Amino acid sequence: MFFKRFLRNRPTADADFVSAYKATGDLDVLGELYERHMDLVYAVCFKYLRDEAESKDAVMQLFEQLVVDLRRHEVTNFKSWLHSVARNHCLMHLRKQRIRVGDGDTDLLDEERPLSDTLVVWPDGDDDALDVERHLARLPAALNQLPEPQRVCIDLFYLQQKSYAEVADLTGFDLKQVKSYLQNGRRNLKISLQK
């Protein structure tokens, strides 16, 4: 009898699962919700980590992180939020890895390239693989529409992985101009991709 009642009240929407988990702390509920999106999480992890074993480890680590994080944050769109959490987890992993295996200059490079400066410019909510692929396909044309200084700075900083100082040396712009061109270029790319 109890089992039938439980099945009848079983959550179906992501928001219902989130509410049920927050109310009860039941890891089975969180596990069922996470399982729905595990393919997306793995795809995001593999996109950044480019290693099957590391991506699988990241998927497991993210579940452990969700146990705590989901109770602390107000989440309205679980899928979008989870995509961001997975992406940030992978970027942090790569950053730590780069600091560990890099030479002495890498620490300076990491300080100059904060995680907020990653080139993710597609509109919020476009987080499934098809949306990401569509925006990536349009990115070269959007880059060509940028004013020359913005395009050059974005190319050097993001695509060629130069530091702020290296971009300034190569272009002749001062450091403030480089940062401004990068910020404006990212904003203009996002606007262009939203059209």
From TrEMBL:
For whether the record's keyword set contains Transferase, the answer is: no
Q: Pfam families from the xrefs?
A: Sigma70_r2, Sigma70_r4_2
Q: Which GO terms describe its molecular function?
A: DNA binding; sigma factor activity
Matching InterPro entries: RNA_pol_sigma-70-like, RNA_pol_sigma-70_dom, RNA_pol_sigma70_r2, RNA_pol_sigma70_r4_t2, RNA_pol_sigma_r2, RNA_pol_sigma_r3/r4-like, WH-like_DNA-bd_sf
* Residue intervals of the RNA polymerase sigma-70 region domain: 33-98
Q: Name one GO biological process term.
A: DNA-templated transcription initiation
Check the record and name the CDD domains matching this protein.
Sigma70_r4
Residue stretches making up the RNA polymerase sigma factor 70 region 4 type domain: 138-189
Name under which the protein is recorded: Sigma-70 family RNA polymerase sigma factor
Organism ancestry: Bacteria, Pseudomonadati, Bacteroidota, Cytophagia, Cytophagales
